[in-house]
Amino acid sequence: MHDIIIIGGGPAGLTAALYACRAGRSVLILEKNTLGGQITWSPKVENFPGFSSISGLELADLMTVQATNCGAELELNEISNISEENGVFTLSTPYGDSYSCRAVIIATGAKAKKLGLEHEDALIGAGISTCAVCDGEFFRNKVVAVNGGGNTALQEAIYLSQICSKVYVIHRRSEFRADSAVVDSAADRDNIEYILNSTISAVHGDGKLSGVTLRSTVDGTEKELTLDGLFIAIGHEPENGFASQLIRLDQAGYADSGEDCKTIYPGIFVAGDCRKKEVRQLTTAVADGAVAALAACRYLDNAR
């Protein structure tokens, strides 16, 4: 049995492991996909303190090595259920495996929703992005589009308008879901152009995005749009369902926890993009990891 099991091997989970191991705890990280999480998709990370430029994959590797060198164990597995009895948590997998521990840190992140188009995955990091703050600088003075109609999409368009020569906002409806103040602010930008009642039906490019095909939601007609970059802002999907019987989730499925990273269930903590928060960035994820690990260590101290 481990002192702490961390579900998720992204920046939040790896940081939590580092802090917990340095506090003398036995730690197991369980990750079902790729160590490093979403950051591994970024070809360049230029907004993480200490590195002027580093690939997301390289940064994830460095964080993984640092955590394991401190004593963290790693396993590739998926958790489908958590239960607790007499202060011991049992984490079950869909494949019949189980793990036990005295405290749990959920750091499963949130995956950006994709368009589900052919060639989309191949162009992520090569013209297609899900984060303007992360990747906008790579498109300075270029032509880009933002796909979405909520606050995030419009805010990203406003941010990109300060960097890019032209920003198209592609939305499937005739009106935005974003707050009116955000819509008005975007409308004041001369280099933002709305393309409404339209969806993206195809993405194009050989190794690098060159454009998209737009389809009208009114009459089904299609047209081509040449682009250097496409930012998809149609929402994120947290993966917290396995813990829904023990912790409180908001309507979107995010863990309902504050900056202390505690949940309503003693011994269960959350860190990173899987929890309800305003800012989801690499730096805020690692901050959550540290907070959750120290909170878990205090819980174990008090549980003796």
Structure description:
25% of the residues lie in helices and 27% in strands. The radius of gyration is 21 Å and the shape is elongated. Strands 1, 2, 3, 4, 5, 6 and 17 form a 7-stranded mixed sheet that branches. The chain has 7 helices and 17 strands. The protein has helices spanning 11-22, 56-69, 120-123, 132-135, 151-161, 180-187, 282-303, and strands spanning 2-7, 27-31, 73-76, 81-85, 88-92, 98-106, 110-112, 128-129, 143-147, 166-170, 192-195, 198-204, 211-216, 222-226, 229-232, 236-238, 268-270. The mean pLDDT is 93.
Core attributes:
alpha/beta, redox-active center, oxidoreductase, five-stranded parallel beta sheet, flavoprotein, FAD/NAD-bd_sf, Ferredoxin-NADP_redctase_2, 7 helices, 304 residues
